[in-house]
């Protein structure tokens, strides 16, 4: 799309570019539908042709929403939209960061980021953005509705406590009513994060100069800056992302460290002592019998299943995600086309997005790669899945992907587009809220990491998706994530978790009593679901026994999911398999696994290394924890991802992993599950790391099913054999030894748990 195809349109006090509107008629709509496969009867679409001015106005607001083959806005919806936009204009005067970023885009070299001149230019561009923020007058620099990552001491906004048992405060005013506002941090707040990124980029620049122009090895630099040779992605942007991820947990980590060290402990031993075998039981979760479960088979299968369930939903679709990825066409299709289409046919759509990650996405909106970055064309190991392959066989009843959704967005524009489309749907049928809460006692931010989608959650035919994926498996993960479809009372429990967190965000003067909105089930029986699987799909187990458990992390440091899993491991007699996308292994878990090995239990762990993980923030803690684990439990098999060139030479590599082709990186293993004795499994959003007890809300399925257990073990073995090598000695996990980062600003440890390990 060319610049002349855009028209300036002022909605929030600053000019934004939206596609130029085109008059819509029944004839050209029918032509559009003929060109794109659309199953719904076009005669059911209502068009406000008699009021073209209102239709044009509405079309601009929603970003050419009518270019999608969905029912259009009525005249009433268009007229009702005007006062809402006017309201957002007044509030929008408080938001200035977006306008500043659009005027100060930071260009940088794409790809591996090894061009010294290009990196120098990027640092110079970032310096200009920093200077523009520093030149703002204090009043302007303080405008913004999002709080930033640090709220413990200086934040002057109004935070309202929720009722127990959730020990949080939520921010008043961040979830505006009837506006398309995306909360933005203040320029002053953003300045801190840009200075951190600048420092990280300078370190990368110094490494390039040392290794390329001064005949040095660069070994004195931490692997967070040094070891990117395997990457064909955008290294400069990745380093910026690592910096922001570190900033998200900095305040939480400081609070945890302060609390634990006040009690005179090292390495968090006071916290460790809370999770002894005597204190960990696995009989406090409520299990439901006769539950149907299906393990989703990769990215395309997930999207097809999600689209099908969405098209079948009659009452509601609820979606909770931690991250939004504007570069992913699947997310663009789901947010902008599928959910809008669903809401327009009268189904209530609610989306809950974590605000911390939104703030990070907003900060990164300033960055723009100077040249096209090489991208993988496939994500599955069978070579069939591509970025857009999900479009090849969308289920009947689903809208096609609009031209607007096929276009790339930066983070701010994508989030704004989502909000505008939600606003444009009549009767509040498409609602978006941003999770923004902090610990009520210590005041640090709490992240909502629970990921789920719930269809008709208030009915006995409820269906839920739960697992590690944010909206859908990413192009980088492909089939290396783990998500499940569940039905009946357990699906309603997942919906109850969504309702609980959604209701927590109500900030009216009279705070609601937050109770689970789950209909009681007096009898445990198999529910006949009105929402069926796709015709070619079947349940992995239609008679599983399943429980759901949600964690409520806080400064108390309680992790009920860890406690339950430790209790089950204490009963293991045969085997334990555990794969974790992000992790460190707390000492209580190392002790439990060591005792299991002494009982003759075979234990296998599979983790990401720097060659596959999308975050290096936790790599130092993870490998230090593995060093501790291998000292406590040397018989545990620890497998970590490695380059194909390393796997070819390593003695532990499975023959299937000895790839005789050009060097390649392993996929990012984002799955999170545990299997005990081939009959009990835990799967969901939970990562086994110490920060889960303090910082991240999770929910997890506990499953008694041999079918599910065997399927997960097969998935584990497939990933282990094709991606990984075994760590044979604890000393391989020493800092700087090749796997564990030596230490830098990007891999600071969380809390005092693994100090001096």
What's the topology here?
Blueprint: E1 6-10, E2 15-19, H1 26-35, H2 52-61, H3 75-92, H4 97-103, E3 106-108, H5 116-134, H6 138-141, E4 159-161, E5 168-171, H7 187-213, H8 223-226, H9 235-262, H10 269-272, E6 287-295, H11 299-312, E7 316-321, H12 329-344, E8 348-354, H13 355-364, E9 367-369, H14 403-406, H15 411-424, E10 430-435, E11 437-439, E12 445-448, E13 452-455, E14 463-467, E15 483-487, H16 488-504, E16 541-550, H17 560-569, E17 575-580, H18 587-598, E18 602-607, H19 619-632, E19 637-641, H20 644-649, E20 672-676, E21 680-684, E22 696-697, E23 699-704, H21 706-723, E24 724-727
Helix pairs in contact: 2-3, 5-7, 7-9, 11-12, 12-15, 18-19
Helix content: 25-40%
In spatial order, strands of the major sheet run: 10-8-7-13-14-15-6-16-23-21-20-17-18-19-24
Structural class: alpha+beta
Low-confidence stretches: 1-93, 373-379, 508-529
Number of discrete helical segments: 21
Cα distance spanning the termini? 55 Å
Work out the radius of gyration. Answer: 25 Å
How would you describe this structure in keywords?
single chain; 757 residues; alpha+beta; 15-stranded mixed beta sheet; 5-stranded mixed beta sheet; 24 strands
């Amino acid at each position: 799309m060319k610049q002349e195809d855009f028209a300036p349109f002022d909605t929030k006090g600053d000019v934004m570019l939206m596609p130029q509107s085109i008059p819509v008629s029944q004839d050209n709509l029918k032509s559009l539908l003929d060109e794109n496969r659309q199953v719904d009867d076009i005669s059911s679409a209502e068009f406000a042709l008699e009021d073209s001015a209102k239709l044009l106005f509405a079309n601009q607001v929603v970003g050419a929403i009518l270019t999608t083959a969905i029912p259009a806005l009525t005249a009433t919806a268009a007229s009702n939209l005007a006062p809402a936009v006017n309201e957002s204009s007044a509030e929008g005067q408080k938001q200035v960061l977006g306008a500043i970023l659009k005027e100060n885009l930071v260009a940088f070299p794409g790809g591996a980021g090894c061009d010294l001149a290009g990196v120098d230019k990027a640092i110079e561009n970032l310096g200009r953005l920093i200077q523009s923020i520093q030149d703002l007058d204090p009043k302007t620099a303080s405008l913004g509705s999002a709080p930033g990552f640090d709220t413990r001491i200086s934040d002057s906004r109004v935070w309202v406590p929720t009722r127990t048992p959730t020990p949080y405060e939520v921010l008043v005013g961040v979830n505006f009513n009837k506006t398309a506002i995306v909360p933005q941090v203040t320029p002053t707040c953003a300045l801190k994060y840009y200075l951190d990124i600048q420092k990280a980029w300078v370190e990368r620049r110094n490494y390039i100069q040392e290794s390329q122009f001064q005949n040095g090895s660069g070994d004195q630099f931490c692997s967070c800056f040094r070891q990117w040779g395997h990457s064909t992605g955008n290294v400069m942007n990745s380093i910026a992302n690592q910096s922001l991820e570190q900033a998200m947990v900095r305040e939480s980590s400081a609070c945890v460290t302060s609390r634990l060290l006040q009690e005179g402990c090292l390495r968090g031993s006071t916290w460790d002592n809370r999770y002894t075998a005597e204190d960990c039981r696995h009989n406090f979760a409520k299990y439901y019998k006769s539950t149907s479960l299906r393990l989703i088979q990769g990215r395309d299968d997930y999207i097809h299943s999600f689209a099908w369930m969405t098209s079948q939903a009659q009452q509601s679709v609820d979606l909770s995600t931690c991250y939004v990825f504007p570069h992913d066409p699947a997310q663009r299709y789901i947010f902008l086309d599928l959910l809008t289409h669903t809401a327009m046919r009268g189904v209530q759509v609610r989306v809950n997005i974590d605000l911390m990650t939104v703030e990070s996405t907003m900060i990164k909106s300033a960055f723009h790669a100077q040249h096209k970055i090489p991208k993988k064309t496939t994500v599955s190991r069978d070579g069939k899945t591509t970025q857009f392959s999900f479009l090849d066989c969308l289920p009947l009843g689903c809208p096609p992907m609009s031209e607007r959704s096929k276009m790339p967005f930066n983070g701010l524009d994508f989030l704004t587009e989502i909000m505008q489309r939600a606003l444009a749907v009549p009767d509040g049928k498409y609602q978006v809220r941003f999770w923004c809460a902090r610990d009520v006692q210590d005041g640090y931010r709490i992240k909502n990491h629970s990921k789920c989608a719930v269809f008709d959650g208030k009915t006995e035919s409820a269906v839920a998706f739960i697992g590690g994926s944010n909206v859908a498996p990413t192009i980088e993960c492909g089939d290396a994530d783990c998500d499940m479809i569940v039905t009946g009372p357990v699906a309603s429990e997942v919906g109850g978790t969504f309702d609980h967190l959604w209701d927590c965000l109500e900030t009216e003067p009279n705070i609601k009593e937050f109770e689970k909105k789950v209909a009681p089930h007096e009898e445990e029986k198999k529910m006949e679901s009105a929402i069926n699987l796709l015709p070619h799909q079947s349940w992995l187990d239609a008679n599983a026994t399943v429980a759901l458990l949600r964690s409520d992390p806080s400064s108390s440091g309680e992790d009920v999911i860890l406690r339950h899993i430790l209790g089950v491991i204490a009963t293991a007699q045969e085997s334990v398999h555990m794969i974790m996308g992000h992790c460190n292994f707390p000492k209580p878990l190392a002790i439990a696994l060591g005792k299991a090995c002494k009982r003759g239990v075979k234990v296998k762990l599979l983790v990401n290394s720097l060659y596959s993980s999308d975050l290096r923030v936790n790599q130092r803690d993870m490998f230090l924890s593995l060093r501790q684990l291998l000292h406590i439990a040397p018989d545990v098999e620890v497998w970590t991802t490695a380059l194909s060139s390393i796997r070819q030479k390593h003695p532990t590599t499975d023959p299937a992993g000895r790839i005789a082709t050009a060097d390649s990186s392993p996929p990012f293993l984002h799955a999170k599950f545990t299997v005990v004795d081939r009959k009990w499994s835990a799967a969901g959003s939970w990562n086994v790391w110490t920060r889960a007890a303090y910082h991240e809300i999770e929910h997890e399925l506990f499953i008694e099913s041999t079918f599910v257990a065997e399927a997960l073990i097969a998935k584990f073995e497939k990933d282990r054999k094709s991606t990984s090598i075994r760590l044979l000695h604890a000393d391989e996990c020493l800092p700087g030894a090749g796997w564990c980062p030596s230490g830098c600003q990007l891999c600071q440890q969380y809390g005092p748990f693994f100090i001096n390990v």
